[in-house]
């Protein structure tokens, strides 16, 4: 008799709900799979966009990142490396609950996953070394980030306030946002 947790219909339901298949050792077997994710979060196979969102969502449930920064689709049987241009996900929508230190920010990715920013899912800024342009990210899960889309970033900036320990003199003050009881610095203002 099959274990009910491993029955195909149960696995299909978990995947449909966005569950992540994990808890097993990564297999040694690797395959060339020809999958890449561009800067806009579009998944490609052999250079052509994958136009089936359910397939991309399914793949996203087995997407992992190793400690060296490489991305892999990992199943109990095999794994294949995935080329990722920036981040595997893009935060395309933000929901705001509450305000001030009690504020909670929730982000929806391009694959309809939701993540709540907080201590376990921090927001961070990365500055382009050549242009200095800032790019915000929210940690989605297990070293996987979602780049916050420009339109969502503008909404995020509207929520900015001075850092709790900002001095306020004529020095630059740090600004940022609260979510889940944590303050995330987004930059400095004159």
How would you describe this protein?
- It is a single chain.
- The chain is mostly beta strands.
- Helices cover 14% and strands 42% of the residues.
- The N terminus is likely disordered.
- The chain is built from 3 helices and 15 strands.
Structural class: mainly beta
Order of adjacent strands in the largest pleated sheet: 3-2-1-6-5-4
Following the backbone from N to C, one meets helices and strands in this order, namely: HEEEHEEEEEEEEEHEEE
Helix % is 10-25%
Question: Which spans have pLDDT < 50 for at least 5 consecutive residues?
Answer: 1-8
- Cα end-to-end separation: 67 Å
- Overall spatial form: elongated
Individual helix count: 3
Output the radius of gyration: 19 Å
Question: What's the pLDDT, averaged over the residues?
Answer: 85
The number of distinct β-strands equals 15
Question: What does the largest sheet look like?
Answer: 6 strands, mixed
% residues in beta strands? 35-45%
For the structure shown, list the relevant keywords.
42% strand, disordered N terminus, 3 helices, 14% helix, 6-stranded mixed sheet, 190 residues, mainly beta
Lay out the secondary structure:
Elements: H1 8-16, E1 30-37, E2 43-45, E3 48-49, H2 53-60, E4 63-65, E5 71-74, E6 79-84, E7 89-97, E8 104-109, E9 114-116, E10 123-127, E11 134-141, E12 144-148, H3 150-158, E13 161-162, E14 173-179, E15 182-189
Parallel strand pairs: 1-6, 7-12
Antiparallel strand pairs: 1-2, 2-3, 4-5, 5-6, 7-8, 8-9, 10-11, 11-12, 13-14, 14-15
Give a short overview:
The protein has 190 residues and is mostly beta strands. It is 14% helix and 42% strand.
